[in-house]
Every structure is written in C-alpha cells, then in structure tokens.
C-alpha cells in the first residue's frame, strides 16, 4: 500500500475580495450541515442555517481594524480566521475554520499562531480574545492547550439574528477566553 501523498506546504496570508466565496464555503463546511460532521468542529447539533454569508465576510474585509487570514495548500483554501481590533489592546479572533478533510494536520494551530502574531504586530493587541459555545468542551480544551483561559464572562447568543444560524436549543451562550500576547 502506497503512503498518502504529502500535502503541499501551508501558505498563510490575508484574504482578498476574490477569496470571499471560498471563505464562506469553507466556514459553512466546517461548522454547518451533515458535511461538517466529518470534522470535530461541527456545530450541527446546536445550530442549523448559515454560519456566515458573503456580505458579512466582505464587511470584515472593509472594516478598519478587521482582517481575515487564510491558509492555503496549493491553490486550495483549507483554513481561515477573522481578527478584529476591539481597542484597549484587545483583539478578538473568530471564525476559525479548517476544512474538515484537513483537520488534524496543524492548520488550525498555524492559523491561531499567525493570528496571534498579526494581532500583536498589525493591531497592537496585548491580549487575544475568542468566544466559544459553552458546551464545546473539547474545543475549549484545545484553546486552553494553546494558552487561552476562561475569563468567567458569558456572552449571549444572538437569537433572532438569522445571519448566525437557527438555534436548535434554547440555552446557547458563549464562554469568553483570553490569552496574553508577547
């Protein structure tokens, strides 16, 4: 039996307008629907509907203090995340998504490290914050292994805002995690 071919090297960079449809497709594949169940980041048990749309991603690209990072293997987009300057030395990392077929290959770790670097260098952040659905114990543990700590703060889920999905349960809220940046 032949070994699986080695994937092309990972290239990290900033998303551009032409990347918007691929970013949306990637995020949807990682979080929503039955296809997302191939990976471990799925939210399909908690939310239906969309996770993000093209208008939202375009707004992220145009907003001052907002960046979308992408990871490519060859020409294929395999990961992304969003960074937003919240002011006061805090940047928020969100929409971290890895193609379910590329999960477990270090793409998420690479994006998280690059996001931390970019947040510090380009946004002047001293702390990196993220929000995770409270019941995602495995995902919270993954972030904790990368230096994030729960702040004890809870944020409400945007019920009624269909841009973020259709909740399948009434008890959704976000845990806030943070880590210092060098």
UniProtKB/TrEMBL annotation:
Looking up InterPro entries in the UniProt record yields: Acyl_CoA_acyltransferase (IPR016181), Bact_Acetyltransf (IPR050832), GNAT_dom (IPR000182)
- The answer to keyword Thylakoid applying to this record is no
N-acetyltransferase domain residues are 10-169
Instruction: Could you list this entry's UniProt keywords, alphabetically sorted.
Output: Acyltransferase, Transferase
The GO molecular function terms of this record are: acyltransferase activity
**Enzyme Commission number:** 2.3.-.-
Its protein name is GNAT family N-acetyltransferase
Origin species: Aciditerrimonas ferrireducens
């Amino acid at each position: 039996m032949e070994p699986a071919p080695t994937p092309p090297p990972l290239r990290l960079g900033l998303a551009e307008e032409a990347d918007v449809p691929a970013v949306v497709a990637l995020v949807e594949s990682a979080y929503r629907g039955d296809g997302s169940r191939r990976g471990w980041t799925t939210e399909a048990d908690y939310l239906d509907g969309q996770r993000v749309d093209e208008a939202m991603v375009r707004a992220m690209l145009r907003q001052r203090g907002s960046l979308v990072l992408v990871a490519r293997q060859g020409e294929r987009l395999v990961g992304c995340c969003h960074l937003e300057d919240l002011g006061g030395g805090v940047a928020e990392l969100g929409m971290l998504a890895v193609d379910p077929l590329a999960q477990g290959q270090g793409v998420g770790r690479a994006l998280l490290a690059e996001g931390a670097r970019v947040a510090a260098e380009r946004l002047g952040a001293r702390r990196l914050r993220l929000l995770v659905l409270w019941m995602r114990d495995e995902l919270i543990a993954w972030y904790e292994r990368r230096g994030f700590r729960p702040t004890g703060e809870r944020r409400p889920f945007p019920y009624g805002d269909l841009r973020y999905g259709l909740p399948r349960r009434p008890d959704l809220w976000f845990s806030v995690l943070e880590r210092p940046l060098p």
